[in-house]
């Protein structure tokens, strides 16, 4: 196969290519583009777009979606409890929803819209004194609950049978719903805002006492408006069941028992617990208040189902052990619930 070019070595034409047929091949000027040159250039590195502020991570988007799914499911369950069982049977609920049910009886106002309007002044106060992040999240969930309450009121059938069954089911369903909302770090407003505002002024008052007084006022108001003591009693049953279920959802799965064991053979007993129970043990030096005898106290956290096995192991190692078993609301750490699972 013949070469397409040959080179003339004559004077003035050193190394200049001659095209086939004797015609001189003119070199390309710098201004002219060689065919295919743009395809031979190395690709430029694409610089990532810089966004102002903190970049939004995929994990944050996932957490946000999960939060909203939990909040939507929780508010839907709570709306079913209110519109199917509480409202038709005149059973007040705790917080602003209970006040809305009472106002619905007096002026026939929509429960959802009334709940949102009652929360509005509290949210304004919380915006100033508590914090914007808390208010924005609470406002979003409160608005979601208000819409769901009024929408579900248009098609959810009303149960008008046994009022005791209505109170029981209302407590169970509303407790699960509110538990899902609180589990993902949000509230439905109402008395949760009142508690934060009151504790800013009087921090020595406990949260439980504030909620107890607020719920008592709502129940008393419902008894006066409905002119029925039974309505107040059913409301107490419903609120109690709801509260217990909320505690179980938030703390029940992470709860357990804490054992305090005073022993004279602390090292041997600790080793027996580690090998037999596969649980960690903390050894603390203690002194008897009467005998002034130096001893050791073992601290061990276990699940409720492991208490019997652990006490038997202790009695097998000690002749006369002194054991204290205490309830624990929540245990976080290795062998129990992880902090990120909260």
Jot down its keywords.
342 residues; alpha+beta; Alpha-Beta Plaits; 2 domains; 4-stranded antiparallel beta sheet; 54% helix; elongated
Rg, rounded, reads 36 Å
Q: Total helix count? A: 11
Q: How many domains make up the coordinates?
A: 2
Beta-strand percentage?
5-15%
Q: Specify the biggest β-sheet.
A: 4 strands, antiparallel
Helices and strands, in N-to-C order? EEHHHHHHHHHEHEEHE
Strands, count: 6
Uncertain residue ranges = 5-15, 48-53
**Inertia-based shape:** elongated
> Could you tell me the mean pLDDT?
80
- For the biggest β-sheet, the strand order reads 4-5-3-6
Helix residue percentage: 40-55%
What structural class do helix, strand and pairing data support?
alpha+beta
Distance between the termini: 78 Å
Q: Helices and strands in order, then pairings?
A:
Blueprint: E1 5-8, E2 16-19, H1 37-40, H2 58-86, H3 95-107, H4 111-129, H5 132-152, H6 163-183, H7 191-201, H8 207-226, H9 229-251, E3 256-263, H10 266-277, E4 282-287, E5 294-302, H11 307-317, E6 322-328
Describe this protein's structure:
- Residues 5-15 and 48-53 have low confidence and may be disordered.
- The protein is 54% helix and 11% strand.
- The chain has 342 residues and is of the alpha+beta class.
- It contains eleven helices and six strands.
- α8 (207-226) runs antiparallel to α9 and α10 (266-277) runs antiparallel to α11 (307-317).
- It has helices at residues 37-40, 58-86, 95-107, 111-129, 132-152, 163-183, 191-201, 207-226, 229-251, 266-277, 307-317; strands at 5-8, 16-19, 256-263, 282-287, 294-302, 322-328.
- A hairpin with a 7-residue loop joins β1 and β2 (16-19).
- The protein has two domains: 61-252, no CATH class; 256-341, Alpha-Beta Plaits.
- It has a four-stranded antiparallel beta sheet, with helices on one face. Strands 1-2 form a two-stranded antiparallel sheet.
- The radius of gyration is 36 Å and the shape is elongated.
